[in-house]
């Protein structure tokens, strides 16, 4: 089902049961899987700290692939040849770079820029206020956080997620706490819990990683 004012490029394929909301832009060669929902306006809870201004229409550049039953909200932008896996959820004003893969079941929160040639593995959560630079690799079921108070922050306080610098790698099931920065080409090993910055080029592993030398 296509809403009004949807712009459709050449050679676009839309699967059965997909819904494309008003104003969405589908570039040339875009593929939309069955049951996907594109350009849906966000519906925020009363307690949400996300901006409440109406976002612009969703934009998908040429060659983007959207998996079955994925949801990509209004205001997001996907660069050329980006891929969103089955059942993933990309929120308003997320900006996904070219040749980046968002795996099945991934949740990308609002206002998150993700660079080019990034891989976000299945089942990850990229929290609001985070930043992911180019060529980052994130394994399966990685979780990030942006609120040290667990919902008890003062009204209007800006939440700060994590920063993943160019070329860093984060292993499966790692947990990154608010405001942590993983430096360029650093490695977080699987199942780590990261509470402090990981310097460029170092490795971190274990609970409360990294230690004084970059790993515990």
Your description of this structure?
Helices cover 0% and strands 29% of the residues. The chain has strands at residues 7-8, 13-14, 19-20, 25-26, 31-32, 37-40, 59-60, 65-66, 71-73, 77-78, 83-84, 89-90, 95-96, 101-102, 107-108, 113-114, 119-120, 125-126, 131-132, 137-138, 143-144, 163-164, 169-170, 175-176, 181-182, 187-188, 193-194, 203-204, 207-209.
- Mean pLDDT, to the nearest integer, reads 90
Cα end-to-end separation: 53 Å
The sequence of SSEs as H and E is EEEEEEEEEEEEEEEEEEEEEEEEEEEEE
Oligomer: single chain
Biggest sheet architecture: 10 strands, parallel
Poorly predicted runs are 212-216
Helix content range of the residues, please? Answer: under 10%
General shape: globular
Provide the β-strand percentage band.
25-35%
Largest beta sheet: what is the strand line-up? 2-5-8-11-14-17-20-23-26-28
Strand elements, count: 29
Number of helices: 0
Radius of gyration: 18 Å
Structural class: mainly beta
Please give a handful of descriptors for the protein shown.
mainly beta, 10-stranded parallel beta sheet, 6-stranded parallel beta sheet, 216 residues
Quick take:
It is built from no helices and 29 strands. The protein is mainly beta and 216 residues long.
SSE topology:
Layout: E1 7-8, E2 13-14, E3 19-20, E4 25-26, E5 31-32, E6 37-40, E7 59-60, E8 65-66, E9 71-73, E10 77-78, E11 83-84, E12 89-90, E13 95-96, E14 101-102, E15 107-108, E16 113-114, E17 119-120, E18 125-126, E19 131-132, E20 137-138, E21 143-144, E22 163-164, E23 169-170, E24 175-176, E25 181-182, E26 187-188, E27 193-194, E28 203-204, E29 207-209
Parallel strand pairs: 1-4, 2-5, 3-6, 4-7, 5-8, 6-9, 7-10, 8-11, 9-12, 10-13, 11-14, 12-15, 13-16, 14-17, 15-18, 17-20, 19-22, 20-23, 21-24, 22-25, 23-26, 24-27, 26-28, 27-29
């Amino acid at each position: 089902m296509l809403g009004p004012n949807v712009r459709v490029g050449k050679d676009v394929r839309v699967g059965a049961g997909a819904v494309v909301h008003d104003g969405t832009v589908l570039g040339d060669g875009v593929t939309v899987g069955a049951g996907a929902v594109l350009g849906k306006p966000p519906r925020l809870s009363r307690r949400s700290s996300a901006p409440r201004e109406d976002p612009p229409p969703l934009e998908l550049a040429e060659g983007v692939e959207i998996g079955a039953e994925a949801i990509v909200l209004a205001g997001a932008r996907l660069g050329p040849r980006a891929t969103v896996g089955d059942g993933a959820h990309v929120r308003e004003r997320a900006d996904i770079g070219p040749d980046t893969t968002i795996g099945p079941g991934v949740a990308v929160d609002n206002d998150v820029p993700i660079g080019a040639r990034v891989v976000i593995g299945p089942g990850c959560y990229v929290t609001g206020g985070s930043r992911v630079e180019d060529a980052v690799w994130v394994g399966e079921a990685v979780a990030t956080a942006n609120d040290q108070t667990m919902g008890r922050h003062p009204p209007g306080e800006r939440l700060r997620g994590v920063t993943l610098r160019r070329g860093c790698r984060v292993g499966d099931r790692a947990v990154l706490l608010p405001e942590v920065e993983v430096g360029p080409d650093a490695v977080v090993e699987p199942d780590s819990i990261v509470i402090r910055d990981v310097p460029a080029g170092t490795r971190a592993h274990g609970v409360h990683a990294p230690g004084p030398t970059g790993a515990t």
